[in-house]
Amino acid sequence: MPHVTSQGEWKPGERFSEAVSYAIEKHAHQRRKGSETPYIAHLLGVCGLVIEDGGSEDEAIAALLHDAAEDQGGEATLDEIGERFGAEVRRIVAACSDTFEMPKPPWRKRKEDYIAAVASKLEDELRVSLADKVHNARSILFDYRVAGESVFDRFRADREETLWYYRALAGAFTERAPGPLADELVRVVEELEHAAVGDSSTGT
Question: Is 31 helix (H, G, I), strand (E, B) or coil?
Answer without folding.
Answer: strand
